[in-house]
Design brief:
alpha+beta; eight-stranded antiparallel sheet; seven-stranded mixed sheet
Length: about 800
């Protein structure tokens, strides 16, 4: 390996005129003239198992980066700027400007974080690119650009010139379909507007004195334009309509095609016989408005899925795997990671698997998983979950659960299955749609007969029936529930609530009784120090230091709880000599004081006491600390309540909900916790099956029961309840039986979900109500002849937009 020279760059050879950017590989330190050279050098080192730095300047990667301006071509390129920062966008191109457009790609071919930096830097030099961020761990590139200066193809070509392959984030097929749909809408809109203009010329009487042959000759452009719209724009609708009829499930497309097709064929007949009563404008505008509605619906779905898509994109595709050969880690495909493997996570990277921190410290952002925005500090011995992002630091982690067994993998599976699942009310709507189409076709036919029987001409009767077909569109019914479902799951995810079953929204608002499990739900589910009461002239910190010094390295529940508490508080244990562990406590000396910690009878001569870990009637275990026979402190141990539990109970009681507490612990302990939080009914000593029986007895009395537990031991009761919620506990997600999971491990999220469920149910009811009211009012009006087909087509579009806009209110950002 070449010896680094302190006066010139170890990659490009230019002098270190404006800075000295360094990096260490093995035991050697290298110097670079700019951050670009340092990053490219890192990429070249990572690209080969046996790198030869002397050949780096001859590599294709170096040449491509040189052409893109990532590395300097001459000393003139080394300006005194901070190369660690992406070049600032041009003033005329503001990322927040409404004139800029977003685009996202999945970039394949990156093999280390330096690749992402190089992509960002190269795009920063492309004229018209306002902002570019590339995430190496997920292969995602997000970019905003000024369409007046550049376009996505140019940006993709800039990325491709570096040797990477940018692909649309949604996949080529989906992106191409959206692009074709937009082009189809634009073309149909332009052609339909011309059909409208020419038709208006006929209707206005400009050509009243022309003969039938002249009218037919002038109407030829209308026929041609309308035919293009019907074939090109209506082709997808016709195919869906045909397959719907073949499967005996006619939908919205069937009615649209029936209305537009009837108007088109009838107009062809009138055109052939020389009549100027043509309805090509109705047919083409109906097709165009439906295409517009479909595009707006697609945009709305994309909007409500935005948070879910961002969450699904959290899953990293690679991991920096540590091995004997590469102790500092080398990036490999995530599929190669197995439980027990060690991997590194650096700042701004997403943790790819659940594990335990072996070395290093860092600050993690768990908001994407739990909804909690407050960062957490992790260090050696702490657990860490997949999907969290390391804000700063560098840690080495031992993988415990990977792939679909990890927390993030389980959450993604649950969300995807929840989105795919059909609910009973949605299936009922589908059945309504299957009946709705033939009924509307029958009403249209009846309208023709009745109108003609009332003295109207066949042409007037036909226009009425055509108006009925056009206005009776079931689009609002078809999108009411699916859109609200996705919006509800998206809003819940932002609050750290994982929804498995959409029916949970409907069931949650109907409960009148709630059964809480105690251990792990209202309490933390672990024995810990809950209270410190100094009894002498020493402070709480002093007595904790003495107690921790006595219990140091003792294998006992009291010792473990004390040690964990003082470590979390940052208290240094006192130096205690001549320590001696006995049956009921520990004794030793600190300075001139003889210390004892344990039961009252052990620590305080003359007092009776039991085992220090024994539970008292109030659910707490008490341990005394004494110095020279005098009491210094009283320590209370137990299963501490989670914050906000008392407020949660009070809020539910104000709603008139009957509350119950069940537990596998003893009746005294369970009753004590119930009194603390204010729950009137408590049952202890119950096995999991007995908890389910308890829920069943409440249901037998007519109660609608919600069960809130930890998700595993309470599985039978959760399955029995009308609504079930689980407080998340570590890796139990895949085995939980609850409809929703509170990812922040906070039972108070039950109130958040109740409030959200009321909003979601209100939107579903409003959407269905609007759809039915619209149809019940508009169809009789159309049958009466007060509307024409063109007005009916516009009303049909507005009904769909009403449902879409109403649902979008659910996902408004605060």
């Amino acid at each position: 390996m070449t010896t680094p020279r302190p006066d010139s760059c170890d990659l490009c050879g230019l002098p270190l005129r404006f800075g000295n950017y360094t990096a260490e590989y093995g035991a050697q330190r290298f110097a670079f003239c700019c951050a670009g050279c340092r990053m490219v050098y890192a990429m070249l080192m990572e690209a080969s198992e046996s790198p030869d730095p002397s050949q780096f300047k001859a590599s294709d990667l170096y040449r491509r980066c040189l052409e893109a301006g990532v590395v300097p071509a001459s000393e003139a390129d080394l300006e005194p700027v901070d190369h660690d920062v992406l070049p600032a966008p041009q003033p005329a191109c503001n990322a927040a400007d409404t004139q800029t457009l977003p685009v996202q790609w999945v970039v394949s071919g990156m093999w280390c974080p330096a690749c992402a930096w190089v992509v960002e830097t190269a795009l920063g030099k492309v004229d018209g690119v306002c902002h570019a961020t590339c995430d190496f761990s997920t292969d995602r590139l997000n970019c905003r650009y000024d369409p007046k200066k550049t376009d996505p193809d140019t940006i993709a070509a800039a990325v491709g010139s570096l040797g990477y392959s940018p692909l649309p984030a949604g996949g080529d097929a989906g992106s191409a379909l959206e692009r074709r749909a937009f082009i189809r809408l634009v073309i149909c809109a332009l052609l339909s507007s011309n059909v409208m203009m020419l038709s208006w010329s006929l209707y206005s009487g400009f050509f009243t004195f022309l003969s039938s042959q002249d009218i037919r000759f002038i109407s030829w452009p209308i026929v041609v334009l309308a035919t293009v719209v019907m074939v090109y724009g209506g082709g997808p609708l016709l195919r869906k309509s045909w397959w719907g009829l073949r499967s005996a499930a006619p939908g919205m497309e069937t009615l649209v095609c029936l209305g537009a097709g009837t108007a088109y064929i009838y107009s062809l007949h009138n055109f052939w016989v020389g009549s100027w009563h043509l309805y090509f404008d109705t047919a083409t505008m109906l097709i165009t408005l439906v295409l517009l509605g479909k595009m707006l619906e697609s945009k709305a779905k994309s909007n409500v899925r935005k948070d879910l898509e961002g969450f699904l994109a959290l899953q990293p595709t690679k991991v920096r795997l540590c091995s004997t050969r590469f102790p500092d880690g080398r990036f490999v495909d995530l599929s190669q990671l197995a439980p027990g493997d060690r991997f590194r996570v650096a700042a701004n990277e997403v943790v790819p698997a659940d594990g335990r921190v072996l070395a290093g410290t860092g600050v993690v952002d768990t908001s994407a998983v739990t909804g909690e925005s407050r960062p957490e500090t992790v260090g050696q011995g702490n657990g860490i979950t997949s999907g969290t992002r390391l804000i700063k630091g560098d840690i080495t982690v031992e993988a415990v659960r990977v792939g679909t067994d990890a927390l993030l993998g389980q959450m993604i599976q649950i969300i995807e299955s929840g989105l795919a699942k059909r609910t009973p009310i949605e299936s009922r709507t589908d059945r309504w749609l299957a009946v709705f189409v033939p009924v509307m076709a029958g009403l249209a036919a009846a309208t023709v007969v009745l109108a003609h029987a009332m003295g109207l001409t066949w042409e007037q009767a036909f226009v009425r029936s055509l108006t009925v077909l056009v206005i009776a569109c079931p689009c609002a019914l078809g999108i009411a529930i699916p859109l609200a479902r996705v919006a509800g799951m998206s809003a819940a995810g932002r609050q750290g609530i994982l929804v498995r079953d959409f029916e949970a929204f409907e069931r949650a608002t109907s409960v009148d009784s709630v059964v809480f499990d105690k251990t792990g739900t209202l309490t933390y589910g672990r024995w810990a120090l809950t209270g410190v009461k100094p009894l002498g002239n020493k402070s709480a910190e002093d007595v904790l230091a003495l107690a921790a010094g006595l219990e140091l390295d003792v294998d006992h529940a009291v010792a473990r709880a004390l040690t964990a508490f003082v470590k979390a508080e940052g208290i240094e244990p006192a130096r205690v000599r001549q320590r001696r562990v006995e049956e009921k406590g520990v004794k030793g000396f600190c300075g001139a004081d003889a210390l004892k910690i344990g039961a009252a009878g052990f620590a305080l001569p003359g007092k009776n006491g039991d085992n220090p870990a024994a539970v008292q009637p109030d659910g707490l275990s008490r341990v005394y600390l004494s110095a020279n026979g005098h009491a210094c402190a009283l320590f209370e141990f137990g299963d501490a309540l989670r914050p906000g539990v008392i407020e949660l109970v009070g809020a539910l009681q104000k709603k008139g909900i009957d509350l119950h507490l069940v537990s596998g612990d003893g009746q005294d302990t369970t009753q004590t916790v119930a009194r603390q939080v204010g729950i009137p009914s408590a049952r202890g000593g119950l096995l999991p099956a007995e908890k389910a029986d308890y829920v069943a007895r409440l249901q037998a009395c007519g109660a609608r029961v919600a069960m809130v537990g930890d998700g595993i031991n309470d599985a039978p009761a959760l399955a029995m309840a009308d609504f079930s919620a689980a407080v998340h506990r570590h890796a139990a997600l895949a085995r939980q039986a609850a409809a929703v999971t509170f990812m922040r491990s906070d039972p108070a999220q039950f109130l958040d979900f109740l409030a959200l469920a009321q909003k979601v149910n209100a939107k579903v009811a409003q959407n269905l109500g609007c759809a039915w009211i619209y149809n019940m009012l508009s169809i009789p009006i159309a049958m009466s002849g007060w509307l024409n087909p063109l007005v009916a087509a516009t009303a049909m579009l507005l009904s769909s937009l009403t449902v879409i806009g109403n649902t979008l209110l659910l996902v408004r950002r605060r």
